[in-house]
């Protein structure tokens, strides 16, 4: 008998197992995650030499998947089903499946406790989270040993959560007006251990394997809540892994196959194509069964007192705003059947003037997609559809909003194979491709007329985030976007690259550029668009995919002679998009920035300051580094005017919280604070950072006593009177 294992069946790494006998949610105990030295992401497995039996029948991963698929529906029908929480960290990988399936809970727990004393190399385990015995000990009174590894790598490992509320020791002084809650969300679980049997020398032995989520955007979410009280100068903290049931399913099925498009960004599901096909029809979701970790909202108009998390699919996970417990998951078409589609945008926009929340859903079809833009408000909690636009099936991370318009930007990172792979739930980066010969398209939707009025074009590029947009007196829309030359940055942010910086290709993160696009002569171009909506190009010499794009762009107008050509596109263009008006642009800020923030009171209007994550001077020229600074830029002066940086520290998004207006006091645009969760790699600990947004000076810090993984997700806040 061969003892060779099919390596394609398993992804193996270094992570704690999940305890199937652990107490349920109501009886949850604090858990923590190790500060591992080196994380092995190779496909290997560790046999348990203590457990063996004569080989009776070969057991394959496909057999286990089939059994898991048959039992899944039965498990999901149990409304009161308890799910397991992650067990204590760094439990031994040498677990005997036959043993733990036959012992009682007490014996199993005792075995796990003994195993957890040593790691896989026989060394003592080290916990990276505050245990209950020290949860209330001021952080600055604990002994903290500096780590020789000061890279960002430890910010991309699993995190634990705790049912306890922790009182943090505040260093410095919070502003007295800063009273409320600050919420963040990001990856909390990258790796899930599971057990399986393998054949060695004619015997079945137990082995521990690990399924790993392959991209920064795919890690299962950890929600964080900070209660800030400036008058008392106190901060309390609690967190929660918000999809434990899904963690359990991953453990049982040895992988994860989403049942809808946009369920994964770039992860090998470790499941057969048959499983993906069978699960393509959506089922009723459990509250903690869907990963919603791209953004957390302190509220949606029309629904008071709730907390909501969103993902790239069309899911909204409702969380309790106090203990972060998931209460339900719904899709946008459950809010209103007109909001149909399997995918959506995690970064919807708020209009502070009208009180509307505006977003869209994507109804994916062969070679084309309908983008249904809708609004929800306190006056109309069920919402209404503003307009629907037929456009290429693109990856849309965000969009722009002005008082009169919505601007949907489709970069040439488009679904390939006629969007069939995307519709069959493949990872986004496995079902999309970047087409450098095709333009970036700007679809302008009139909020007043409720229709798509004109489409502009510009040079091919890629972006995650829009910064802001506003109208000017020249009948133009200005759209500020953090752009990249192509999709390289999306491929660089894989778990493998972030954990092994030396493997990143290219070795440095792709540089970004803050561009201001100008969509000129909106009224004139929209009239031309409407009068020429029967224009169709010849399909001669045009691929069927590009030809189909004309169905989205029918009626595109001729470029106005007044429109300035794009700076980098000085030559005359030709082809199917040549007749579209041009969106000119210029670079506002050159240094690489990401996760932009502006004062939310200055959204949809001309503004001066933008904040974001950037690079220190040393890291900007070093290989394998990520953002390690918080930067303030002056959009009028086109320069960086201030920044915060501390050695060996890596911030997540810095959320701008504006100072509340008091009486007739006139507030400046930069009157507020920036709040960020920062990893201090040398101390192997995260801390909450509060900066003065005007001077970028530190106002206060509070150590969390644990590592909170670095996040690309968007946070929010709720101030109290």
TrEMBL record:
GO molecular function terms attached to this record: carotenoid dioxygenase activity; metal ion binding
Keyword Metal-binding: yes
Binding of Fe cation, residues: 397, 465
Manner of cofactor binding, per the entry note: Binds 1 Fe(2+) ion per subunit.
Record Pfam families: RPE65
Compositional bias per record (Basic and acidic residues), positions renumbered to this chain: 1-26, 54-71
Biased composition (Acidic residues): 72-85
GO biological process: carotene catabolic process
InterPro entries named in the record: Carotenoid_Oase (IPR004294)
Keywords, alphabetical: Iron, Metal-binding, Oxidoreductase
Ranges for region Disordered: 1-94
Cofactors named for this entry: Fe(2+)
Family listed: Belongs to the carotenoid oxygenase family.
Name of this chain's protein: Retinal pigment epithelial membrane protein-domain-containing protein
Source organism per UniProt: Syncephalastrum racemosum
